[in-house]
Design a protein that fits this description.
With about 350 residues, this protein is α/β, with parallel strands linked by helices. Helix content is about 35%, strand content about 20%. The longest helix is centred in the C-terminal third of the chain and has 17 residues.
Length: about 350
Amino acid sequence: MNEAPISVLVVDDSKVAQLLLVHILESDPQILVAGTADSGRDALDFITVCRPDVVLMDIHMPEMDGFETARRIMETRPLPIVVCSAVTSPEDVATTFRVMEAGALACVAKPAGPEHPDYLQMASTIRQTVRLMSEVKVVRRWARTGAGPAKRPLPARRAEVLSVPPQTGIIGIGASTGGPQVLQDILSTLPKDFAVPILIVQHIARGFLPGLVEWLGQTSGFHVEIAANGVTTLPGRVYFAPDDLHMGIRGNRRIVLTNDAPIDGMRPAVAYLFRTLAEGYGPAAIGVLLTGMGKDGAKELKLMRDSGAVTVAQDRESSVVHGMPGEAIRLGAATHIWPADKIAEGLVAAVSRGSDRGES
């Protein structure tokens, strides 16, 4: 017996965009567009009558924007939400991540049309993301009466210490689908005097990275930037691999960017970063593999573990998609398997132990 198709509600105030997205989605026999809505308010009305499996939604709409729509959906009838937005300004991208903070699971770029050179790839990404998000179990986010308490950073030192080696000097993190919100949780929980540079490869649609960096900088209190070639990494700073460039790190703490061939179709690749950490830092590094589709970085996390590094994989329960960390666990690459809300605590413990021994 055939499985029921994935039902999708498309929310966009442009009829042209609606028609294009419907065409893209329904070219996959596993997907059925249950309806379209011109505004956030129409979307809320629709899901009170017909509950789709996924909501594919723009951020700019009349009456109620994407942020407010996502917030209300997650407070009343929680559903997997995918943001589908055209990247036209830094403000648009920053708004996209506010919508993700409200509960959206992923963001994809809105394709310009069949004549665009990247149309087929963008359409495939939309379909693949919708299929993946339809399998995610979401939970209700209760309405807040006010702004709510700010997330309290961890202290720089802890009495409880994990079994990790000293000399921890650098952290590498890889993430894909579901990663931005986990990164925000980790960075906003780390102590503000956290004295180790953090290098991150986040798979994300082209054009969204500057907004992600701005959002994380504003919400975490850390200095977050897109990496530049040859820059010497500084303690307590966060560096993201740029669009379409691999990022690695030399033994002298200088970042190296390269347009070498994609690794398993990925550029930037987590694999490239982790390989340089294994080769140049060994036990002085920590590798973290977060939620995401595919296998990028899993084998290289094993290289890091074999070189003596502390290696972390996010657990299945807290991952939006358990592809990358799941593969790392299968390979025996992880010295620790932690839920998202315990990763910052583990990083603090690892770094604190190194500094307690008088090593950097």
